[in-house]
Design brief:
alpha+beta
C-alpha cells in the first residue's frame, strides 16, 4: 500500500484503555477491516467504502477522513485530540529506561 497521510491524526479507543492513532488511510482501512463483524453497520460500511474509494483515487483523502471520523463518533470510540496530545508528549519525553 502506498501511504496516504491525513492532515491530522484521529485518535480512537481500541478497547477500554488503549488509544490508537489513525494517521494514514491505510491505518483507517486496517482499523475498519478489523472491526468486529457483530458491530458492523451501515455507517461502518460507508466509512470503509469511502476509504477504499480514496485509496483508489475515486474520492479525495479528506472524504475518507470525514467518513472515518463520523464512524468513530457514531461508535463512541473517538478520543479528543487535545486530551490525548499531552499524554502522548509526556510519553515521548523519557528515555525509555527504567530506573534501577
Amino acid at each position: 500500500m502506498n501511504e496516504k497521510m491525513f492532515n491530522s491524526p484521529i485518535f480512537v479507543r481500541d478497547g477500554s484503555y488503549l488509544v490508537q492513532e489513525i494517521a494514514t488511510l491505510e491505518d483507517a482501512i486496517d482499523f475498519l477491516e478489523s472491526w468486529p463483524e457483530r458491530k458492523r453497520d451501515l455507517i461502518h460500511e460507508r466509512a470503509l467504502d469511502s476509504c477504499y474509494a480514496a485509496f483508489d483515487g475515486r474520492k479525495p483523502l479528506v472524504a475518507a477522513y470525514i467518513a472515518f471520523t463520523g464512524f468513530a463518533k457514531r461508535a463512541d470510540i473517538l478520543e479528543d485530540y487535545d486530551a490525548v496530545m499531552p499524554w502522548l508528549a509526556a510519553s515521548q519525553e523519557g528515555t525509555g529506561r527504567v530506573p534501577a
